[in-house]
């Protein structure tokens, strides 16, 4: 099982209504001359007729009945955003913090109760600084933090011997189509998105050098390092299916975390005209 951070997109039909969103926000902004700016924003978004699939059925089976496997529901996103910005002088920067909630609700899924959506990152912090060493040369640093994304993890896994022996005489699309007479293992899930990945954070450093201009063509060289302290940020997690299982033993669920990038240096050359 792999928890991929993906979305499902399907067309609107006579049976599937187009999605609708209603957004409300209230903000306050304070400016101190031209140096500092502070902004606070409260927001609430109601989503209607959003869709998901029945988590038991397979929608990718080229069936004309795929519409019956799509379930309509609602979404609720709300929170607060704070921003402090300094935009003049040799040292400039932005500090932002977001407190956010994101919920989804679908009839017949998760006991028809709300569950946190993948966008439900409770705390988000971003700090970006830029220091102008001299005209045409600047140094930059940014640090970002985000709470772990929710994901679904079974509390138990048990073998489906009926499926392995094909007692019913036909394949059931609710399970794996690649049985090969092997035992299929079914997850027991108490609720959706019942666990969270580890927080994501990284520090990035960079420098930008303006190399001058020739005939209205500007030359800019940029170099830096992404994720300086080589944080292993989680992208997805998975666990392996068991090959054999004994009723006399308890098997702990072994998780595997996958990350996209660790420390990554970069350099770029840009022409502007």
TrEMBL record:
Q: Which InterPro entries match?
A: Beta-barrel_TonB_sf (IPR036942)
Look up the domain of life of the source: Bacteria
User: What subcellular compartments does it reside in?
Assistant: Cell outer membrane
Name the UniProt key words of this record, in alphabetical order: Cell outer membrane, Membrane
What is the predominant subcellular site recorded for this chain? membrane
Would you tell me the protein name for this molecule?
TonB-dependent receptor
